[in-house]
Amino acid sequence: MSFTKHNAWEKRFPELCHFFECYLNNMIFEELGQGETTEEITTLMVQNQFRTYSKKVLEQLSELIALIKKGKMDADQFLKEICSEKLYEYDHISTLEWFEIIEKILKENVPKRKKDPLDPDDFED
């Protein structure tokens, strides 16, 4: 993994890169108890983050998927450049399909309105 490429992606998709780094940590360190399936891990990560962060992850992932579908980016190359670990659990589907599954889960789980009056992100709206 090239740090230059990784840093470029972090500048363009900061929350999304952070999300995938945390996601991989959950996959590698199972003792964290953050779920085992894509749905479990993604849902728990959304529940454990502020609403604005989760919305930004969803927006950046949707942008990434659109670029991949237009042929302007390669999903596998993107994942390889931001993550040094291989996700063997998802070899049966394409990286784009995996991204779309995560996008669907995010759409279903990102809060649409304020839930926690103490959430500092809720003061931005």
Explain what this protein looks like in three dimensions.
With 125 residues, this protein is an all-alpha fold. The chain has one domain (3-110). It is built from six helices and no strands. Helix 1 packs across helix 2 (14-28), helix 3 (38-47) packs across helix 6 (95-109) and helix 4 (51-69) runs antiparallel to helix 6 (95-109). It is globular. The model has no long low-confidence stretch (mean pLDDT 76).
What does the secondary structure layout of this molecule look like, with pairings?
Blueprint: H1 3-12, H2 14-28, H3 38-47, H4 51-69, H5 75-82, H6 95-109
Helix pairs in contact: 1-2, 2-4, 3-6, 4-6
Number of helices: 6
Mean pLDDT: 76
* Helical amount: 55-70%
The total strand number stands at 0
Radius of gyration based on Cα positions: 15 Å
Write down the overall geometry.
globular
- Based on secondary structure, the structural category is mainly alpha
Please describe the biggest sheet, giving its number of strands, its sense, and whether it closes into a barrel. Answer: none
Low-confidence stretches: none
Estimated share of beta-strand residues: under 5%
Order of helices and strands: HHHHHH
Number of domains: 1
* Oligomeric state, counting identical vs distinct chains: single chain
Task: Report the end-to-end length measured between terminal Cα atoms.
Answer: 37 Å
Quick tags:
single chain, 125 residues, mainly alpha, 6 helices, globular
Quick rundown:
Helices cover 62% and strands 0% of the residues. It has 125 residues and is an all-alpha fold.
